[in-house]
Amino acid sequence: MEQTVLFDAANPKKNTVDIGHGLRLVIISDTKAVLYRHDTYIKPVDLTDKVAKRFFVVDIIEMGALKSRVASSLKMSRQTIHNYLEIKKYFGLEGLIHGYSPTESKSLRKQREEHSKERPGGNKAEQVAQIRKQEREKQEQRQLDFSFGPEGQEQTVAAPEQPFGEEHDWEATRYAGVFSYLIPLITEWNWLRLVMGYFGSLYKVFMVFLLMAAQNIRSIEQLKNIRVRESGIVLGMGRVPSKPKIWEWFYGAARKKVSKFLLMDYFRYQMRVGLVGIWLWFTDGHLLPYTGKEKVHYSFNTQRRMPVPGRTNLVTCDNSGRIVDFEIQEGKGNLRSHIVALSKKWAGDLPHRPVMVFDREGYGAGFFWGLISEGIPFVTWDKYVDYKELAKIEKEKFTEEFEFNAKKYSVFEEKKSFTYTPDDPDENKHSFTLRRIYIWNKTSCRRACGLAWDGEKGMSSVDCACAILSRWGASENTFKHINNQHPLHYHPGFALVTSDHQEIDNPEIKKKQGMINRLKKALNKSYEKLVKAPQVLNKDGSPRQNNVRKRLNNSIQEQEKELVTLQEQKKQLPLKVNVSSLENYKSFKKIDDEGKYLFDFVLSSVWNARKQMIDWLRPFFNQDNEVVDLFYAITNCHGWIKSTKMEVIVRLEPLQQPKRRLAQEQLCRKLTNLGARTPKGKWLIIESGDSPLKKVSRK
Prior knowledge:
Elements: E1 3-4, E2 16-20, E3 23-27, E4 32-37, E5 40-46, H1 50-62, H2 67-74, H3 78-97, H4 108-115, H5 124-137, E6 144-146, E7 155-157, E8 168-173, H6 179-187, H7 191-199, H8 203-215, H9 228-235, H10 243-254, H11 259-272, E9 280-289, E10 298-301, E11 306-317, E12 323-330, H12 335-345, E13 355-358, H13 365-374, E14 378-381, H14 387-391, E15 400-404, E16 407-420, E17 430-441, E18 446-453, H15 461-472, H16 478-485, E19 496-498, E20 503-505, H17 507-532, H18 548-572, E21 576-578, E22 589-591, H19 594-617, H20 627-635, E23 639-643, E24 647-652, H21 658-672, E25 683-688
Parallel strand pairs: 9-13, 13-14, 24-25
Antiparallel strand pairs: 1-5, 2-3, 3-4, 4-5, 6-7, 8-23, 9-11, 10-11, 11-12, 14-18, 15-16, 16-17, 17-18, 19-22, 20-21, 23-24
Helix pairs in contact: 1-3, 8-10, 8-19, 11-19, 17-18
């Protein structure tokens, strides 16, 4: 529990030492000291305990305290403090203990004898000096080895240039608000370490993508319109380079072919630390259109209601709209197989299987039976519903009422039976029942139905109704908002290869069907003529041998035989054929998704960080319908940035309205208190205030 203690008379000011970075050390006596940060109690230390004192010194230096002030307040040399840090670096905490034993009855000689076999002998400071000498000799050749990538395959990545390595005084920048995304990504998602581990110095292209996603810059070509110095210092890279250099970084990262492993690590981490929900998962497809000249598979454009060339990005979100996972598939994609594969993919990393929620595209008895067989709970819309019959249901049946998204609903539940007949004739039919949830929106006077199978989760009718309404009701639509605020469709660096899926619908079937249709049309005309043709008789009352009616009968018999033959021929044709076996057909091309995966990784990171920061902002701003606009106003603020040896400070220009400005200040405090640090140990601080470049007026 955090304890707040203000300095009182028992701690005289002369014994209170400011040791830097908001840290204060109160020397109570020769045997005890207490550490505070911004007047908040942190921890005490017993100065007579040598090992505890060493640990304490190392901790406060790592928190940002200045060595000179710590040395002066604790009456020790700076070299001793430096040795403590180096000993911990090379020998760990065991090196700081240095043969220490809490048992007072044993002599120092006996303690050293007991621990001599467990640690290397000799003076630790001398050993550290020798290690530093060896490192200096190898500094030019030194590389960092990371075991990132496929299991069992090590990749050697050159030591990356460190972000925010440049030190400079206050400089104005139009992109100060972008800095707010970087802090939660470093502290909550471990994002920078993940990217630098996989790509080394090429991490800088991901910082450029971060700028593009945060500022809604729709392509690398549009970077020509940015201020390269002002954006570069916010990203910690000095200046954003020219377009050819950015493309060089991008292709260097794409050639590593590790996007799938990067995404696996990123998705797994946010699941395990609770950054995304694991109760309800909503999966839907989003069109990625292709407008090039090559032949690619067709996806479906829902807005235009027609197939168009492109791919489908199958995105899974939790009930708060955070992106949990995504996969890009050729053409229309396969939502059903993706949902099953997704549940199996993360089954080992989750304590329970999430409830899968999807729209009517996944409706089907075979798919439902497959989910039940795999033990995957799900909720979806009922597809074939007679809305006139729904309107006739008595109001008294809707027994449970609830409110969702400021609308009033009522629900009740029944059962719906299904029978699944497998394609294999040797396999038996499967009969099962699902829960059918009747939903009545009293606000809009509309009714609908949902289907559910929750396994043993014990979901109520209201829970099921809320699940289906959470994604496709009046709540925020993930794709719509991403596309409005971020470059969702952008695909850097198109590369095309021959697709593995070269099958198409057999064109001969279409030809046969055309012949069948024409023959049926001719038959119908013959039937009409036959009905209208008069019956011509001889004088003796017998029918004439050569008359119109008889000729029509003969023609109809021939056409009926031809129709049966064509239908049999059509049945014998295969449904799918490979285009390589046909004449005058081009092979399908597949768009390489490596670059798109890298860009969408950054886009997903920015989106999830945005959702998290908006949640942090809500307690400070009570107008919920304006909190998203307020967040974007904050992240688009101009400001100033300063980089010192220990800190990177960004100051945002204050918003004009007092209420919004107060919320801005609170969010900045929240982000600063996360304690974000660069790999080199610089603290990242964000604040709101007036320009530090203004000249102080003299009276």
